Amino acid sequence: MFFLVCSYRKTNFSLGFVIGFGIAIWHWSRNDVSETTCSKYKSSKYSYREWAVRAGIKTFPLDYDELSYGNMDDGMLTEAAFLKHHVYVLCVVHVKKLKNAVAIKNTWGKHCNALEFFSLFSNDDLPIVQLRPKSSWHFLCDSIRYVWKKHKHKLHWVAFIPDDLFVLPENIRFYVTPFNYSKPFYFGHTLLFWNQLYNVAQAGYILSKGALSLLTTKFNSTEACRDGGKYWKNEDFYLGKRLSELGVVPRDTRDALGRGRFHGYNLNQLLFSGRMASLSDYYKKSVYPVPQGPECCSRHSATFHSSGADKIHLYDYLLYRLKVFARGGRRGNRPAPTPVPEEEVWRQFLREQGVGDADVSAQQFYELWKSEISSPDAFNEKLRREHLGSAPSGSGPGAAPRDDAPSDGTA
Predict the structure, then answer these.
(1) How far apart are CA 111 and CA 100, in angstroms?
(2) pLDDT value at residue 357
(3) Residue pair 163/93 in contact by the 8 Å Cβ criterion
(4) Burial level of 7, CB count in 10 A (0-12/13-18/19+)?
(5) What is the pTM for the complete model shown?
(6) If DSSP codes are grouped into helix, strand and coil, which group holds residue 255?
(7) What is the spatial distance between Cα 157 and Cα 198, in angstroms, rounded to a whole number?
(8) For an engineered disulfide with 60, which of 18, 151, 275, 299 has Cβ 3.0 to 4.6 Å away?
(9) Which residues face 193 on adjacent strands?
(10) What is the pLDDT of residues 15-24, one digit of tens each?
(11) Are 116 and 104 a contacting pair, CB within 8 Å?
């Protein structure tokens, strides 16, 4: 009997369960996972949990501490890992700042099934697809054509993301799994502009394989893409317009409590109601309004603004690595392994100095230690000299400028 294990996460989808894998294996083996289940349950009226029950998947609680520090059996996976095997989410990032793209690659990008970067520039250290469009719609359209040609046999869903968003692919899978990806779906944060519904790019949006198939049929060349929209910074509006012409409109992606999943602003702006003035248009134009303040955001939010590479790494730590203690803790409280037992450290030091530990007084030990260990000031001076060559420290001509030094020469 196999079991599927789901770990506990504070925000992203993996909330402490063990899945009965025996029934699931029988179910998935009959056909492709999404084709089999989603062809029966096409509507969002089915929640993920209802879909799981209908698919014959059973869940059981599991202590997260055992999952983190115990030995996982060969027949066990986290529920999020199970979905990653069966719900293929391709993440497409439109890059403006290279450092943001690098941060994404090293953090949340690892949780996508595949990751593609597109930009107006190329880079030797990051696999960026360089495009030379005439407009932002041309850029988006050509990136859609590229991923369709390269990934169409694998992809189920494609997330289009600006490089200043933090994304939780697990929560995207949690939301889209009950839908049939072969049908045209278009998810995100929906605005109304010039009587046109569209999902705003700054919050990211999701297209199903069925939607991409329609678009690539209509825009089957870069020339067709070029002629489809001529203005910059309006590609999300044009996408909504072109999809509506094909009969595809945005859907309500709020959770059961009316809270949003796709957010174009950072959490500091969204969670505090006193800071909403600057976002008033964002809410006024929202077709499916969400509460302002602490109840703005779903516990299974999929995207929010991160404002830069440092915040991307911060959110990655908070969401994927930091754990709030709930129960257990037996394994997590174990001390870190050390190559030398603590009580042997000082004896080993004396042996390295050629002195027997029985013959050394406390004062002699201190003097030996002092001769080998630099003071903080001496250590900093050594690093400074190694960095600058033989130049002395100070503010003379040979000194390196400090990061905090004023640029205008004032003290």
Answers:
(1) 16
(2) 62
(3) yes
(4) buried
(5) 0.73
(6) coil
(7) 18
(8) 18
(9) 196
(10) 333 333 333 3
(11) no
Gap between the Cα atoms of 39 and 59, Å rounded: 22
Are 77 and 91 spatial neighbours (Cβ–Cβ below 8 Å)? no
The CATH class of 87-321 is: alpha beta
pLDDT of the residue at 396: 42
DSSP 284: H
Token pair recorded at residue 153: 């046999």
What is the C-alpha separation between 270 and 268, in angstroms, rounded? Answer: 6
What tokens appear for 63 in the block? 């202590």
Q: Torsions phi, psi of 287, nearest 5? A: -75, -35
The closest alpha carbon to 6, from 48, 54, 44, belongs to: 48
Please choose, from the candidates 149, 78, 65, the residue with its C-alpha nearest in 3D space to the C-alpha of residue 111.
78
Computed from CA positions of residues 282, 287, 293, 296, in that sequence, does the dihedral angle turn out positive or negative?
negative
- Residue 199: exposed, middle, or buried by beta-carbon count in 10 A (0-12, 13-18, 19+)? buried
Helices (H), 167-291: 169-176, 209-218, 222-227, 235-245, 267-271, 280-284
In this structure, what DSSP letter does residue 335 have? P
Cα 245–chain centre separation? 32
Point out the least confidently predicted range of 9-13, 137-141, 352-356: 9-13
Q: Tell me the longest C-alpha to C-alpha distance in the chain.
A: 90
Q: Nearest to residue 160, comparing CAs of 206, 220, 195, 104?
A: 206
**From the centroid of its chain, how far is CA 189?**
18
| Token pair belonging to 179 | 């839908």
Q: Are 250 and 206 in contact (CB under 8 A)?
A: no
Q: What is the pLDDT of residues 250-269, one digit of tens each?
A: 999 999 899 999 998 888 88
Q: Strand pairing partners for 166?
A: 304
- Show me where the domains of the chain are located: 3-81, 87-321, 345-388
Write out 137-199 in H/E/C secondary structure: HHHHHHHHHHHHHHHCCCCCEEEEEECCEEECHHHHHHHHCCCCCCCCCEECCEEEECCEEEE
d(CA 9, CA 238): 37
- Copy the structure tokens of residue 369: 């230690």
Alpha carbon distance 38, 51 (integer Å): 9
Contact status, residue 331 vs residue 65, Cβ threshold 8 Å: yes
